[in-house]
Amino acid sequence: MNGHTDILAIETSCDETAAAVVRDGHEVLSNIIFSQIDMHTIYGGVVPELASRAHIEKINPVIEEALRTAGMTLQDVDAVAVTYGPGLVGALLVGVAEAKAVAFAAGKPLIGVNHIEGHISANYIEHPELKPPYLGLVVSGGHTHLVIAEDWNKFRILGRTVDDAAGEAFDKVARAVGLGYPGGPKMDKAAKGGDPNAIHFTKAKVNGSEYDFSFSGLKSACLNYINTERMAGREINIPDFAASFENSVVGVLVEHTIRAAKEHGMKDIALAGGVAANSELRRQLAEACEANGFHFYVPSPIFCTDNAAMIGAAAYHEFKCGTRSGWNLNAVPDLKLGERAS
Ligand code: KG4
Ligand code: ZN
After folding, report:
1. Is the dihedral of CA 237, 201, 255, 184 positive or negative?
2. Measured CA distances, 324 to 76, 111, 154, 205, 336 (Å)
3. How far is Cα 151 from Cα 138, in angstroms, rounded to an integer?
4. DSSP 3-state assignment of 158?
5. Which residues line ligand 1 (CB under 6 A)?
6. Of 40, 173, 203, 314, which one has the fewest beta carbons inside 10 Å?
7. Closest approach atom of ligand 1 to CA 182
8. Strand order in the sheet with 110-114
9. Which residues sit with Cβ closer than 5 angstroms to ligand 2, an ion?
10. Which atom of ligand 1 is least distant from the CA of 279?
């Protein structure tokens, strides 16, 4: 005890084995990430069985390094936090079992954290002034959510994707055009030299909630374009293609976000998730926020893609709200935002 609240956080929901020590919900004392990307690249995507095995191999050294970098031992932390969903069940289980063992052995409280809440909370790390209520846009490989953070651990979902997540669309389209895995960062880079208006991909509209998203139509349009060009023997201009696709995705994300902020009287807008690392999305949303008088928040790219510091930030607020998990905490692969483990 040092007057601070120091939380050891663990994240293993997909293909990053990560551990961090976070002080008072925003000061990152360590943030260790072992990425398995190289291992999955040859398969063109994450192989769940390989991910679980790699988590088992790496989890202990990653935690030890997180504690060592923070200059702490397990006895010095106030709680142990872990992502328990959503994600790949076999991957989540490694982190959950480890966190339970570590917390039990050290006599520390255990806090199960929702991965999506973690992504949103990444904003508190560099912007401790951000407080609910605010509007959040979470865009990652598995999720596309437009939410109102009504309180620290209370969220109202305004819209979500009805098919592919934004990151999934980036990955699938990048793969189809030959950019490889993971596609998001590669499309981002390729788009820099391209003309966003070179190819007109229509923006998907969804029947249903006015804030919902749909990316499968755009994905099909991209695949059709690739096939048509290849059949005609024409070479695809990758920068133009990437910039046009990106512009279509970013356009609909920004449009829904700004409209939701206006209609719900939100002044602060926080972007999060792996796709929040996208430079064009950051640029266009920042510009739209400025034009409409909203405060725009976004984490540094390292806190956008999967990491454990964001789990530590979310856990701090859960801890303050009184959340404690039992030793029966289990992985919940389809955990919804705002849902609690029983
Ligand atoms: O949050 P994250 O690390 O994992 C999930 O929770 O899904 O997000 C990974 C996703 C991948 O689809 C990846 O292609 C995408 O985020 N991504 C990007 C960029 N960096 C990562 N998409 C577009 N532009 C980027 N710079
Ligand atoms: Zn994630």
Report:
1. negative
2. 18, 5, 16, 41, 18
3. 16
4. strand
5. 14, 140-142, 167, 170-171, 182-185, 188, 273-275, 277-278, 305-306
6. 203
7. 14
8. 27-35, 16-23, 6-11, 79-85, 110-114
9. 140, 306
10. 26
**Token duo for residue 12:** 């293993």
Number of the ligand closest to the Cα of 174: 1
**Structural tokens at position 228:** 């048509």
Q: What does the alpha-carbon distance between residue 127 and residue 155 come to, in Å, rounded to a whole number?
A: 19
Q: Which of 228, 223, 222, 213 is nearest to 244 (CA)?
A: 222
300 C-alpha to ligand 1 centroid (Å) = 13
Q: What is the pTM of this model?
A: 0.96
Q: Tell which one of 170, 187, 189 to mutate to probe ligand 1, the residue whose CB is within 8 A of the most ligand atoms.
A: 170
119 CA distance to ligand 2 middle (Å)? 6
- Amino acid present at 258: I
